[in-house]
Design brief:
With 240 residues, this protein is of the alpha/beta class. The protein is 37% helix and 21% strand. The longest helix is centred in the C-terminal third of the chain and has 21 residues, at 194-214.
Amino acid sequence: MITVPTPAAPNTSASAGRSRTEHPFAFAHEFAREYGLDRRSTGAVAPSSRALARELTRPLRGIGSATAHTILEVGPGTGAVTRHIAAAMDARDRLDLVEANPRFVHLLAGRLGAEPPLARIRPQTRLLAGRIEDIDLDEGRYDAIVCGLPFANFEPDVAEAILEQLFAALHPRGRLSFFAYAGLPALRSAASGPARRRRLALTRRIVGGFLAQYGVDRALVLGNLPPAWVHHLAGEPVRR
């Protein structure tokens, strides 16, 4: 695990003002490149759309401001969802970002130092480089966890271990949110051989078991490429 220092001060020059965050597809080539190199850690071919980011961060907008909150984002990529998390934070909140892809870590460090609204939360943010499995998370620390990991790309035991780790780190009254592309599992299964189909099916069953036990809400986001289901889960088993 590496704690990555972010730049000390934002660049206020005219060129910096024309931030790439103003252009929705500015980082699409970064995602496409990294997706081709490492599908295990980069499960998206493009940054999350605004619609997807808003749905993933919906629990944060209702979390209340009476006390400080601690938030974890796993797999922030280039920061498309992080910007929406930042917009929901006040000065007392804390944010941990865990990113496994070194190129994205470098991009995030620069954005945290220079681009609003991320620069505003830089003093409240830790950027941790490494896979989530290698990060020590305090039990019950987080009031909200937003996860962008591609569970469908993982071996069944890895998906199960990560979900167990996240639930251990989630406060009992907290929320865990993650997404899965609509229809993609069926397409992958159809294009796979028997062994891979069995692995994909087992991973789906494992993730589905967590959804059955902890799921409280889900929403289909059509305004994303491709469309995605967003799942919101409670920190404790839900009574049906």
